[in-house]
Amino acid sequence: MANEKLRLDKYLWAIRVFKTRTQATAACDEGKVKLNGTNVKPARIVAVGDRYDIKTPARKWTIEVTGLLHTRQAYEEAIKYYADITSEEDKLSNQRLTTSFYTGKRQSKTGRPTKKQRRDLEDFIGPVDLDD
């Protein structure tokens, strides 16, 4: 590509570390993206060989830039543009986070009955009067 300059926030979005460019920009502004231990701005120009430490809500990453990706691609394509060099210690903490991570969805067959289940129950035991 003729224009080889690429902003950091756009790169992190293109390689699918963040879902939106806004999230990538916010992470840079909040100090969650570091180059050699120092915070970087979202407009920083990315160069091949740079190593970034990234904290996302889901995990910690350490990546090395192996190529510049200007547009968002499929995951299989995007992973070719960086090397995940996350330490084993961080990978283990990422696994602990994912096992205890609550998604907000309830497990199937638990909790409130569905409308169909409630109607079947009412047909079986009769309508429930809550005024008594």
Provide structural commentary.
The chain is of the alpha+beta class. The chain has one domain (8-103): Roll (Structural Genomics Hypothetical 15.5 Kd Protein In mrcA-pckA Intergenic Region, Chain A), CATH 3.10.290. 33% of the residues lie in helices and 14% in strands. It has 5 helices and 5 strands. It has a 5-stranded antiparallel β-sheet with strand order 2-1-3-4-5. A hairpin with a 4-residue loop joins β3 (51-55) and β4 (60-65). α1 packs across α2 (21-29). The longest helix has 13 residues, at 88-100. The mean pLDDT is 83.
Number of domain units: 1
Shape: elongated
**Secondary-structure class:** alpha+beta
Low-confidence stretches: none
The name CATH uses for the topology is: Structural Genomics Hypothetical 15.5 Kd Protein In mrcA-pckA Intergenic Region, Chain A
Major sheet: 5 strands, antiparallel
Could you name the CATH class? Alpha Beta
What is the total tally of β strands? Answer: 5
The CATH architecture category equals Roll
Task: Kindly state the percentage of residues in helix.
Answer: 25-40%
The fraction of residues assigned to DSSP E strands is 5-15%
* SSE string, helices as H and strands as E: HHEEEEHEHH
CATH superfamily placement? RNA-binding S4 domain
Mean pLDDT: 83
The rounded distance between the terminal residues' Cα atoms is 75 Å
Quick take:
This protein has 132 residues and is of the alpha+beta class.
For the structure shown, list the relevant keywords:
5 helices; 132 residues; Structural Genomics Hypothetical 15.5 Kd Protein In mrcA-pckA Intergenic Region, Chain A; single chain; alpha+beta
